[in-house]
Every structure is written in structure tokens, then in C-alpha cells.
Fold:
Amino acid sequence: MFADRRIGLALAAPAMLFVGLAFLLPVGILLSESLHAPSGWTLSRYITFFTDPLSLEVTLRTLRLGIGVTIVSAIIGYVAALAIVEAGPQTRGRMTALFVLPMMISPVARTYAWIVLLGRTGLINKAVVGLGLSDEPLRLLFTETAVFIGLLQLFLPLMVLSLTSALENLPADVIPAARVLGAGWLTIFFRVILPLTREGLIVGGTLVFTGAVTAYITPAVLGGAKVLMLETLLYQRVSVANDIATASVIAAILIAMSIVTHSLIRRMTGMRRAA
Structure:
């Protein structure tokens, strides 16, 4: 047993070394940069950041959009994943391909495609004006709604694939057994499906939230300067203002958001399973 453990550690050592040098070390330097000032170690940069009204507004907007995209993607993801799992083999393959195909296209192209739909001369505004629902084109671009839609379309496949994998490993007899005992669909979902697929929800929720709060192209294109998020603010601080200190604070906040959200999702699904 001891020899097997040593062999396992030896085989994993190159990967662990790579992760340490390529991820842990840069993150450690980044965090130390955000806490270090000429006068010594301090939290003054974080205090200055959160006392700035613009920075606080951008942080809250990033959290709001990240949480909203994660919740909506989970709802849609469960419906889509259940439909995929219950479909026949050929239909299941086609439905899965529909979610995988967008991931093979560049996020830049997928984001710019929304301009064709949401622009003042886009398909949606042409339909609205043509149906007489509005006399003038609606302002859809450079709004939180546009950013929300773009982020949802961008990261929804990750949630669907994670939940599909979890549902495929669900025992085949648990849902029929719950039906025989008289449980309705809501009871089956919350007391059977959700606890048994919690790992898929944790993985999908973490991927979607982390991707939503750290995305740059989609907020920059669909939100512009009117709908700033932490990632676009980070870019401005580095490229425009050359403010590396504030940029390191923003990066540390994004890392903390991802870790805390992963822990909260795991704890909430664990509480649901215990209940």
C-alpha cells in the first residue's frame, strides 16, 4: 500500500509541479501585490476600492449578473438535461450536438452575432417595429439585459453537459419507485433528482458563475462603457490607467468570488441532500 502511494505521488508530481508553477505561484504573487504597499502589509487598497461608488456598483453588478446567469442556467439546464436523458439514442446524440456545437465557435463570433439580433436595425427591433409594438427601435444593446443574454448563451452548454452527465449516472429505478409511492414531479425533483445529481450541479454552477464573472468579450461588446463589470474594469485599470495595484485587487476579488460561490453551492446542495 505504501509503495503504491509513493508510485501514485511520483506519477502525479509533474502535474502538481506544473499547476504550482503555472497557477498557485502567480496567484500567490498577485494576492501579495494587492496586500503590499510601500508602507508594508495593509488592506488600504481594498478599503479604497470598496469605498469608491463606481467600484462598488461594478462589483454588485458583476455579482448580480453572475448569480442570475447561474440560477437561470441551472433551471434551463435541468429541463434540457432531463429531455436529453429521456430521449432515444439518436435523438439524444442530436440534442447533445446542439449544445456542443456552439462551444466549438469562438466566443468573439458568438458575442458579435448578438449585435445582429439586438442592434437598432437588428432582427428583434425590425420585428417589434414591423408588428407595431413600438414606433421606434428599442434600446437593447449596451444594457444589463443584453449582457445577461450573452453570458447565458455563452455558458449554458457547460451547465447542460454537467447535469446530463450526472443524470445519466442516476439509478434507473429511483424515479419509477418514487412515482409508485405517490410522489409528484416537484417532490421527485427536490427529494430524489436534485440530491443525487448535486455533484453535476456543483460543477456546472461553478463553471457558469466563474465564467460569467470573469468574461471580458461579452460585457465589453454587449455592455460597452455603460455596463461595466469587474473584468472590463480590470482591463481599463491595466491598459488605460496603468494602475496595476487596483488591477491586482480586482483580480483577487474575482478569485475570492469564485471560491466562495463554489463553497456556497456545495453547502446549499449538501443541506438539500440532508433535508
